[in-house]
Give the backbone structure.
Amino acid sequence: QVQLVESGGGLVQAGGSLTLSCEVSGVTFNTWNIHWFRQAPEKERLFVAAIEWNGRTYYVDSVKGRFTMSRDVANNMVYLQMSSLKPEDTAVYFCNADDRYGTSIWGQGTQVTVSS
């Protein structure tokens, strides 16, 4: 059974840094893609970053140069290192896994609040 558990959210001042973690179980990284999405209050859930099965990473333009996504295959962990945080980065951050068969699994989310 695939399960994703996010952690690492919190309150940080603008300009600060935070690293989110996603513990992934039931997934083999060489066949699943892992994503980070975020959802601000009363807004739709939006793509932030992804790491494909082959290790290639993608980012939305607004976080390029500030966020770095990585994975630790041995420990079944995925990370999102966030720096130079802005108030507009405030959102619930969700980890998502999908495979080539269309299966998509979501974690429960972790709150990130950036104060100005």
Q: What stands out?
A: The radius of gyration is 13 Å. The mean pLDDT is 96. The first strand starts at residue 3 and ends at 7. DSSP finds no helices and eleven strands in the chain.
